[in-house]
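[step 3/7] fold_predict: job queued, chain A
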Amino acid sequence: MAFITSPALAETGYVVLDDHPQSADPIEWPELDYIGWRSSGITRFAPLASYAGEIECNGFWNHTPPRTDKDGVWIGSQIAKAPVLVARAQEPGANVGRCRVIELQPNTYADAIYNLHQDDNNRLNEDGTGWVVRAWMNLTDDADSLLILRSDRFDPATEIRLPLHAGSRIIVDTQRFWHAVWHRGTAPRYSLIVSWTSGPELDAYLAENGANAHPASVDLPAALIAEGQAELHRRIEERRRAFEAHGIIMEPTPPLN
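[step 4/7] structure written:
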């Protein structure tokens, strides 16, 4: 199928924008209503836009009638508390699907790579329309924390690590990458996450905000990566055995290199 995609993301599948002046914005996220939802790490979410304007996080394709991750409905009680966050989500003029603030508790590198996942934002997306990508806008100053991207879930050689200081803005084709956040901190991390539809509006926004498809990836010690890989395989094997005990057979994972 052919979709409208953003040329800025064509080569690497992600870009880092110029920093947003986060310190100039009001701190709106503590007042939002949060709910638990399955994700990577110990998380809660504060939805700003959802399938039907309710405080819930389910994929739009899991509703009736199902649709792709577009045309999110703004939640009145939430946007009244966070008008600046809503304005940031609407700034490109691109179609907005799901929009929410994530609260992530501190975790480890092993936690993050175990929780690597790919999104399914384009399920039911129609041929010839815009491809849905995901934006992260970090609200708190988590300069030591990293957004981890892998094109191969089990191969650390494919890993890209992008820092998450206050005001950082990262746009990713999250169906192309396995991704999760390693939050190295002592307090929760907060970030605005938006599903945007690719097209001329998003292209213009990326160009105007210094989209960089080749940002520096943060180096990590080889021993830390090796330990994380070993723990990843240990946890997956533990889960596989638990499922098999209930008669559920899982696909084997690639061998640990």
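[step 5/7] annotate
Residues 50 and 72 are 5 Å apart (CA to CA).
The chain has one domain: 7-218.
exit 0
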